[in-house]
């Protein structure tokens, strides 16, 4: 129960990323109706597309939970394969998001002013779609390794301590507008992705495997004691 609560609360902290999206939406609202209308288009589009990589990440975490106690080497190969496969697939999806940007925008509005502003930001939108897809896979890896607290701390630092203040400063104080919002939304996610990749490469996976096996043995011993009683 203690381990469950520890990982559970870590997962809650990690989900502050979703709250960050809402906070950015509130910030964009102060830029005016047109900016908010434009922001809604990629926001809803990416929210839909990113469900796929987040599903990949969840499936990978479950598979890692099965594979890691058996073989660290096999688990690492699986992680590397899924990560590079996802980079190719979601890289192509992101290219498609940019190529078909006008069709995507046309699904939401025919307003000329909204379409013109959307045209300015869609390169950054496509990059963000790729960044968040890779983050979704890395979040799954963190969960599979039982590093929810590490993920949550990294999220909080990059998104709330760095990301939101710099977005506010560049978009409102410096009058960069929605273009600055989407540019600076990419930077924290890029930073999180690089940081997570570096940390995963330096983590002792064999130590994590040993901890999992020890926990399983302890649970089995406790169950045997209960049955004997």
From TrEMBL:
Keywords: Membrane, Transmembrane, Transmembrane helix
Transmembrane segments: 12-34, 46-66, 78-100, 120-142, 149-169, 181-203
The keyword Transmembrane is annotated on this UniProt entry: yes
Recorded GO MF terms: antiporter activity; xenobiotic transmembrane transporter activity
Annotated GO CC locations: membrane
Family affiliation: Belongs to the multi antimicrobial extrusion (MATE) (TC 2.A.66.1) family.
Protein name: Uncharacterized protein
Originating organism: Fragilariopsis cylindrus CCMP1102
